[in-house]
């Protein structure tokens, strides 16, 4: 195999891994491609709920053809015994001759041990192929392992002058149908969708993925310090069908907690700070619950609190070609900045047209 062959097959494995985003938490989304004598003999990706692993699926598809093959795996094969045997040992048992990986697994249970198992068995190992691409794909998993919280993407849909609604609160629809369809695709690629209590009260949103024919739904999360939300709304009526989690403070009434629990939702108490829920504690609680990727859709005060705390990893900014004026509602609440040097800065990763609107993707280094 040439270096170009390695990159091509690893790109295939990363594409397979991408299919699992939003479906496999708390596990990472991994892809595996088995190549023997220049021919793909097996492919696999992490399945819903995190099991079976990608290598298991690829080896099952390849059967005897796995012997002597090269395995391209987007993340280091696991080396620990869990619900299934370690994938590193499965590759050894199948007689794979070479393993190419993109990224080492930082999970302390693996962290190089998978490579050690392979090398000890005499298997040739090549590491770091398309590592930068794999790191972007695995940002949610890496953030949870390294920082104890999920990666957070902040979605903003604004007018030319950065407003999300008129002064009267009208916001449907600032962007067009193509942009809204892209938002649903983004929801599907995250483990959960997060909004603030004000947005939940004003919009009564369902926060589900619609129009894409997907078989899974993200967890729906509302951050409401006092849990002052009607259980009769769209979220309460469907909490037994699609999970609803409610982040609230210690002062939330016991009756509200009991009412939401009876409706099928999961109240999660977190500490308060700065006049609201502590943003770091919110995300730590979600990381402890297993989430790796969270898609935040506002509102402005929640967005501001997450930005102030340095917890926004990605921004998806949809821009529409209309102006709403200074009396319109701002997309982000007050940040309390006195100097430009204090402002959170992001690097432009991509920019494209989405129907009549634009989508720019920004990343924090």
Report on this model:
The protein is of the alpha/beta class and 365 residues long. The chain has helices at 3-18, 54-62, 87-94, 113-120, 131-137, 139-147, 177-188, 197-203, 234-237, 254-263, 279-288, 300-308, and strands at residues 31-36, 39-45, 70-73, 98-101, 124-126, 151-158, 163-165, 192-196, 219-223, 244-248, 266-269, 272-273, 276-277, 293-296, 314-319, 329-330, 347-354, 357-363. The strands form four sheets. Strands 11-10-9-8-14-6-15-18-17 form a nine-stranded mixed β-sheet. The longest helix has 16 residues, at 3-18. The chain is globular and about 65 Å long.
Please sum up the structure shown.
It is built from twelve helices and 18 strands. The protein is of the alpha/beta class and 365 residues long.
Beta-strand fraction estimate? 15-25%
What is the straight-line distance between the termini?
A: 34 Å
Structural class: alpha/beta
Q: What's the overall geometry?
A: globular
The low-confidence parts are: none
- Read across the widest sheet, the strand sequence of neighbours is 11-10-9-8-14-6-15-18-17
CA-atom Rg in angstroms: 22 Å
Q: Give the % helix.
A: 25-40%
**Biggest sheet layout:** 9 strands, mixed
Number of strands: 18
Number of helices: 12
Could you spell the SSE succession in H and E letters? HEEHEHEHEHHEEHEHEHEHEEEHEHEEEE
| Overall average pLDDT | 92
């Amino acid at each position: 195999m040439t270096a170009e062959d390695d990159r091509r097959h690893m790109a295939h494995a990363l594409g397979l891994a991408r299919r699992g985003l939003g479906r496999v938490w708390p596990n990472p989304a991994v892809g595996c491609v088995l190549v023997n004598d220049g021919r793909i003999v097996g492919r696999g990706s992490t399945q819903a709920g995190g099991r079976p692993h990608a290598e298991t699926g690829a080896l099952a598809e390849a059967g005897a053809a796995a012997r002597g093959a090269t395995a391209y795996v987007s993340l280091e094969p696991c080396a620990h015994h869990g619900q299934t045997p370690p994938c590193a040992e499965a590759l050894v048992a199948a007689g794979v001759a070479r393993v190419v990986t993109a990224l080492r697994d930082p999970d302390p249970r693996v962290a190089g041990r998978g490579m050690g198992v392979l090398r000890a068995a005499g298997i040739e190992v090549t590491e770091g192929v398309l590592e930068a691409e794999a790191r972007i794909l695995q940002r949610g998993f890496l953030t949870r392992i390294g920082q104890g919280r999920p990666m957070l993407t902040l979605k903003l849909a604004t007018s030319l002058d950065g407003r999300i609604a008129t002064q009267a609160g009208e916001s449907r629809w600032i962007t067009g149908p193509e942009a809204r369809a892209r938002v649903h695709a983004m929801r599907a690629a995250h483990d959960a969708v997060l909004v603030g209590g004000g947005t939940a009260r004003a919009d009564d949103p369902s926060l589900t993925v619609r129009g894409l024919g997907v078989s899974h739904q993200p967890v729906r999360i509302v951050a409401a310090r006092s849990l002052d939300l009607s259980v009769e709304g769209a979220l309460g009526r469907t909490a037994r069908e699609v999970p609803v989690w409610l982040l609230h403070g210690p002062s939330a009434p016991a009756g509200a907690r009991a009412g939401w629990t009876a409706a099928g939702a999961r109240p999660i108490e977190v500490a308060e700070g700065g006049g609201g829920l502590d943003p770091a504690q919110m995300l730590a609680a979600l990381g402890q619950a297993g989430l790796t990727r969270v898609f935040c859709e506002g509102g402005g005060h929640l967005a501001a609190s997450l930005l102030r705390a340095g917890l926004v990893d990605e921004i998806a900014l949809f821009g529409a070609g209309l102006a709403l004026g200074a009396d319109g509602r701002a997309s982000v609440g007050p940040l309390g900045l006195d100097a430009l040097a204090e402002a959170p800065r992001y690097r432009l990763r991509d920019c494209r047209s989405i129907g009549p609107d634009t989508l720019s993707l920004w990343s924090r280094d």
